[in-house]
Design a protein that fits this description.
Helices cover about 80% and strands about 0% of the residues. By secondary structure, the protein is an all-alpha fold. It folds into three domains: about 1-95; about 110-180, Alpha Horseshoe (Serine Threonine Protein Phosphatase 5, Tetratricopeptide repeat), CATH 1.25.40.10; about 190-295, Serine Threonine Protein Phosphatase 5, Tetratricopeptide repeat (Alpha Horseshoe).
Length: about 300
């Protein structure tokens, strides 16, 4: 009996924590001064990010606990979900729009955003991730729909290996701009790293659809198709990569391997000959030639 009460205790704790958050944060939201300083708007963005992550964590905890509930306890989940939905709806209704800026104010804000982005980029180059993230968030606080700021933030997460945050941010960029091929490309790379090659293929096909002049997009697609056991399609993608960057040893190496895999002796030989021309020191040439002779 006592073990059955543990999940209920978890839910009660979650409700108490959420109640505390509501009591502390809701007055700030409902009394938001839309003419406040850029710094105050940036603080609001930071608070919202932290708040939403905490809410998602609490929801995840409650969902795991509910798996062990009896039918009677499942009503608690409905109460918890209903409360969360009401809070979210209340936040949306209470959030006011920022008034349009004058041309002078707009110019000043744009200049400040440029400063934040430049500082963030410099910090990211030295792997000062935390401070770089702060600068990007400061820029977003001034312009919540600034794609460049979100892209910098997404690239930062990607470079530091925080794939979950990178994925979330790239997905948000796509919501702001559905034609952002770079975000689709990065999402494809993330899915490939996580071994979800079907989803990676989906994103990579979209990236080449939107930008068919980037060899890297075709290279990524070729690797994914290879992993999915689609060597013919992978070969075609590698061919397009070589067509765009004919002197890139990486592309030629990939094309040679896929040519051998598909039994295309002529294409394999041409790729290796070109590889020898642009990169004669390549240690793989001899091995590739041996494989070609066995076709």
């Amino acid at each position: 009996m006592i073990y059955a009460l543990i999940p209920l205790g978890i839910i009660i704790i979650c409700l108490i924590v959420i109640g505390f958050i509501i009591g502390k944060k809701l007055p700030q939201i409902t009394t938001l001064d839309v003419t406040g300083t850029p710094e105050s708007r940036a603080d609001l963005v930071k608070d919202k990010i932290v708040h939403e992550r905490l809410m998602r964590s609490l929801t995840a905890i409650s969902n795991k606990a509910v798996k062990f509930f009896s039918p009677g306890f499942k009503a608690s989940k409905k109460v918890f979900t209903s409360l969360y939905d009401k809070v979210s709806e209340l936040e949306r209704k209470s959030r006011k729009k920022i008034q349009p800026r004058t041309p002078e104010e707009k110019e000043k804000v744009e200049k400040k955003i440029e400063e934040f982005l430049a500082a963030a980029e410099a910090l990211a180059e030295t792997e000062n991730w935390k401070e770089a993230e702060g600068k990007y968030i400061d820029a977003i606080g001034l312009d919540p729909k600034n794609v460049e700021a979100y892209r910098g933030l997404a690239d930062l997460y990607f470079m530091k290996g925080d794939l979950a945050k990178a994925k979330e941010t790239f997905e948000y960029i796509i919501k702001l701009n559905s034609q952002d091929f770079d975000s689709y490309s990065h999402l494809g790379q993330i899915m490939a790293q996580q071994k979800d090659f079907k989803k990676a293929k989906e994103y990579q096909l979209k990236s080449v659809e939107l930008d068919n002049q980037a060899a890297l997009h075709y290279v990524d697609l070729a690797w994914t198709l290879r992993e999915l056991g689609e060597p013919k399609e992978a070969f075609e993608a590698a061919e397009k990569a070589v067509g765009l960057e004919p002197n890139n040893p990486r592309n030629l190496d990939l094309l040679a391997e896929l040519s051998i895999m598909t039994g295309n002796k002529k294409a394999a030989g041409e790729a290796v000959d070109k590889l020898r021309e642009v990169n004669p020191e390549n240690e793989k040439i001899e091995k590739l030639e041996e494989q070609i002779r066995k076709i």
